[in-house]
Amino acid sequence: MRYEDGSPYVYTPGSGVPQGVQAVNVGWLERQGEFPRGEVPREFVHALAVICRDNSTNRMRGWQSCTLPHPEGRPPYPVVVDVDGTEVTLGSAEIRLLAHDGRWLIAPNLVLHYVAAHGYLPPREFIEAVTAGRAIPEPPSGLPCF
Predict the structure, then answer these.
(1) Among 11, 14, 72, 130, which has the highest number of CB atoms less than 10 A from its own CB?
(2) DSSP state of 18
(3) Does residue 17 contact residue 98 with C-beta atoms inside 8 Å?
(4) Is residue 146 predicted with pLDDT exceeding 50?
(5) CA quadruple 64, 23, 59, 67: dihedral, nearest 10
(6) Are 122 and 111 in contact (CB under 8 A)?
(7) Residue limits of the DUF7919 domain (predicted)?
(8) 63-67: which pairs have CB atoms within 8 A and are 24 or more residues apart?
(9) Which residue intervals of 21-63 are DSSP H helices?
(10) Is the pLDDT of residue 144 over 50?
(11) Is 86 helix (H, G, I), strand (E, B) or coil?
(12) What is the rounded CA–CA span in Å between residue 121 and residue 34?
C-alpha cells in the first residue's frame, strides 16, 4: 500500500482510532513512487527500532514485503531486524505516534526498514514524536479504544 505522508489514514477503518481523532499516514511506501530521502539522527533510528519492538499495533496475518529496489538482489522476506538483542519481524503491524497537535501519525512498522535500508526521510513531526517516545499503546484486548 502506498499513501502520501500526511494523507488521511484509511488503511483499516475501525482499527482503534477514536472518533474525532485526526489520523494521518507516514511511511507507506511502494516501488512505484518517489519519497523523501535524507539523513536522520542516529538516536531517531534506535528510538524507532524500540517503538517497532515494543509498540507495534493493529497486527495483521502474514508479512508485507518490501517492494523497493534492493541493490544486493531480492529483498529479505520477511524483514527481520535485531533490536537490542531481540529479533523483530517487520511488515505485519503499525506504529502509532502522537504529534504535538494531537494528530495520530500512523506508519507500517516496516518504516524502520525504509529508513535504515532505503534512506527514507520521514516528516519532521514524525521524527520528533519517535525521538520523544510518544507511542500510542494498543488498547487492552476486548476493551474499546478511548
Answers:
(1) 130
(2) P
(3) no
(4) no
(5) 10
(6) yes
(7) 1-130
(8) 63/89, 63/90, 63/91, 63/92, 64/1, 64/91, 64/92, 64/108, 64/110, 65/91, 66/91, 66/110, 66/113, 66/114, 66/117, 67/29, 67/30, 67/31
(9) 42-54
(10) no
(11) strand
(12) 11
Give CA–CA dist 2/85, Å, rounded. Answer: 31
Please check whether residue 102 is in contact with residue 74, taking contact to mean a CB–CB distance below 8 angstroms. Answer: no
73: cell is 538482489
Question: Which cell numbers hold the place of 40?
Answer: 536522520
> Band of the pLDDT at 136, cuts 50, 70, 90?
very high
User: What 3-state class would DSSP assign to 54?
Assistant: helix
- State the amino acid at position 32 in one-letter form: Q
Helix axis angle, 124-132 relative to 42-54, nearest 10°?
70
- β-pair partners for 79: 90
φ, ψ dihedrals at 44, nearest 5°: -65, -45
pLDDT digits (tens, 9 = 90+) for 42-66: 999 999 999 999 999 999 888 889 9
pTM across the whole model? 0.91
